[in-house]
Amino acid sequence: MPSPTPRERFISALERRPIQGRVPHFELVFFLTMEAFGKVHPSHRSYHQWDQMGDKERQLHRQDMAQLFVDTAERFEHDAIFLHPNPGGLDEIMRLLDCVKDIAGDRYYLMIHGDATYSIPNGDQMVEFSYRMVDDTQGMLGDAQRMVDEALETAQKLREHGALDGFALCADYCLNTGPFLSPSQFSVFVAPFLKRLVAGYRDLGFYVIKHTDGNIMPIVDQLVDANPHALHSIDPQARVDIAEVKRLYGDRVCLIGNVNCGALDTGTDEEVVESVRYALRSGMPGGGYIFSTSNCIYTGMRLERYELMQSIWRAEGNY
Hints:
By secondary structure, this protein is of the alpha/beta class. The chain is 49% helix and 11% strand. It has a single domain (6-316), classed as TIM Barrel (Alpha-Beta Barrel), CATH 3.20.20.210.
């Protein structure tokens, strides 16, 4: 019997089915492509000349991006790839998906950003957003409904196209001290629309990972009730304990995380090793766990620190 592919292992974890061998692993973003491959990460490349490119240039650019995504997954044993498409909307998403499929076939689980719910507003919009919740409640709720409708229309077209496995919902809801919206506000302006979005994606056959940094504990029940396949990133810098989340909700949702990015960046090697081990021993029991950092491998982090993290995972992250 052939060994399962990375994609199949990733899906098994999302479905909380038993896995043999190493715990599945991916990073929402791996930005250190310059250090690893001598290439700027696709999302850091300048797109201001995109409109000047001819068709041949664009296709060469897509192929280079796709190859870099696949090379990253292969070198670092990622089971899934989070794609960052070029400007151009749905057509560009489909073209990039096709390029990755041409290179890797069905080997890797493929996902894109797909959130359509309110996130923490930018600093210059916070006051207006806060007033509008009171002064134009129905308008905000109408916009929330429209955003979900549009996202599901796009998802339907992606389902017809094929190639995509799921969505990572990347609207951040929380700061280190707690959610930007109170739990009661969240239950009005976000939770019903998140639940409808997740249900719509699931009905189309997609998997759904809900990402948010920060202290999710005051709203974690609402996040789980929305029924995503997984929660990412279970943020230890906000004092979210993956062992406690596993105890409370591990029978309902897959957990993804939660090696401390702060330790990876500025901590000691010993702190990195301990964070990795805590994530593994807390997340692994009973399955339904995918190993990753508590955010992403971001620009400025030392590649050697990520490689240290991976060395512990390879040695100790095995069923």
